[in-house]
Structures are given as structure tokens and as C-alpha cells.
Amino acid sequence: MAGDLFEDLPPPAAPPSSANGAAVITTETSPAPGQSLPPPPAPALKSALKRTKPSAESQSETSAPEKRLRFKTTTDASETQVIEAMQKIASHIKNTSKFSKASKLAMQLIQAGSVKPATGDHFFAILEAAMSSLTACHEPSVRADYHELFTAAQDAIECLSKKQQNMITTWTMRAVVANDLLTDDSFVFSKATGRIKETISNLPVATKDDDGEEAAALIEKTEAVNEEAAQTDNKEESDPFGLDDLIPSTSKKDDRSKGKRVTSTKARKGQEEEETKRFLRSQREALISCLEIAANRYKTPWCQTSIDILVKHAFDNISRFTSRQRDAIEKLWASVREQQVRRKQGKSVSGKLDVNAFEHLQEKYANEKISIRRAVGGSGDRKCQQWLG
After folding, report:
1. Residue 86: CB partners within 8 Å, gap ≥ 6?
2. 293-306 pLDDT, tens per residue?
3. Looking at the record, which segments are called Disordered (predicted)?
């Protein structure tokens, strides 16, 4: 009966061994006689969104080059481009409202190493345009920018001529040292007064020739200003639309060639001596400007001691200045002395005289008796000898 029950079933297949050695029994059904095997199931359709990842080689061949964002750390510009940039900066730096931006562009040229002997004249033109007004560097809105520009200019000063270096030294006295006198930092203020004192000590004694040259320079400067104003008025009257500048003129070329010949002739005769005199004259004027700025800050209590020492030093070295400048220094010293007297007459909160440290020491040692004998006291008494027996 059992045979009848399993007669239609296929014989059992051999059990395959599993990975762990256990036997796994599987059964298969065979088609009945006269029937064909069913077709194998069709493979499952893959979604078009699910694609196999291509290999690295095929991806590198088919993919477009990857774009990366890079920042330039250096500026590769030709000499012509640098000169054009300097000319544009020089044309805008005269304007106080544009000075901040123009000065930063000039400092970028210094940092990039674009100031070279070939471009030194154009860079000097930027500084010259910035100092076309000697008082503009003290305006609060651009004071810090002037300080940064002329401090950075020291890194490129070797690319300039000796005459240009002297001018930058004078401008630095106005744009850097004088602006340090307007600071709220007592250390910076004291350091600035020290630089002024050192510069005064290095000046030579002024002569009568210096007085005459100073007077001649003032007259020449006044005449030049008046002549420039007159030429501007005449040009506006004769050419109100500015058409003459568009027409090439041979007379202008002739005047330029004559001016060059005269300049070259003057340059051969005592050029170094004239340059030295001009440098000393401009340096003395810058020092007088610094003294006036310092004296105007005398109302600030912590500035008074430094100003007293500075003006006193200038008065002691008054022979190093011209006669006109000596009058200015004498007036400054008289003003400082007058304010000292007023301050001493006033009473402070503690009831003592309002004197600073310099005045206290000055008063202390003014009447002190100093003995040449070390064994004797400073006031001339013989306490040391009595103590020794």
C-alpha cells in the first residue's frame, strides 16, 4: 500500500552536504508523462533609476574636468599695467573722500613688490599727490590712513633717488610722527616727542644764508601760487570749453624742451648742495609744525610733562633754526611757561599745588647744594662725619 502511495513520486535525490556538514533534504517535482518542463522565470526588471556604478577608469574618461575655486595670492602684472595703476591712484589720492581706498591700493602695490627702480618715479608721484596739502594728513577722517601709507612706504624707499628719499623723510615727520602727537596713548606720545628731540639735535646750526634762502623760498612759493592762479583764470577766459588741450601745439613742446635744458644746466651746478639745503629747510618746517601740534595738547594733563621737556629742548637748541622759526619757538616757550604758572597757582583737590613730576624734581634740585665730597651730605651738613666720629 505504501508502494501505491509513493508510486507517482520521483526517487529521492542525494542530500547535498551543507557548509557545517549537516544534510539538507530537497525534493523536486518532475512533470507528468507527456508534459514539458515549464519555462524558467523571467529575470526581475530593474528600475531605470537604479544603474550600476561605472568603473573608475570609465568614469575618468567620460566625466568632464572638475572645476575648483582658487584664489590668487600674488598679482602677476606687467610693468605697463603697474604704471597705469599708479597713475590712476595718483589722480584720485588728492581727493580726501577717496584717499582711504587709494592709499590701500598703493599699499597693495608695495606688498606685492611692484615698486621697483623702474616704477619708483610713478610711486613717488602718488606720495607727492597725497602731500599736495601739508595739513590734509592731520584731518581725523584720514589720519590713520596717512599713518599706514607712509609707514609702509619705508619698505620701498630704497627704490627711489636720494632726493625722493629726503622728501619722504620730511613727509613722514608730518604724516606719522605729528599724527602720533594726536594719539590718546601716553607711550606713543612720549615716543614721538623723543623722535622730535633727536631730529632737532641732529640739525646743524642755522646761518644767515639759511635765513635768506628761507625768505627767498617763501617769496618764490607765493609767486608760484599767484602765477598758477592767474594762468588758470586766463585759460578759462580764452578757452572756456578746453579745446586747446585737444589741439597739438609745437610751442608747448618747445617750452618743454627749453625747460628740460634749463633744468639739466641747473642740476650740474651744485645739485647736492642745493638738495641738502632744501632738505634742511623742509625738515625745520616740519619740526616747527610738530612743536605747534604738541603745544596745542598742553591742556591734557598726562601730556604736560613731555611737552615741557620737548619745548624746553627746542628752546635750548634754538640756534639750529632760522630767525623766523626762532620767533615761533620763543612764543611757544613763553606760552608753555605761562600755562605752567597758571597751573601752579591753581589748587587741586588735596589742597597742594598742581604740579607735575618734572616740575617737582626741577623745584627740588634747583636749590639743592651738591658737595664734591662724598662723605658730606647733599645739603652741605656734616652728619656723616659726626656719625663716623
Report:
1. 106, 109, 119, 122, 123, 125, 126
2. 999 999 899 999 99
3. 1-75, 223-278
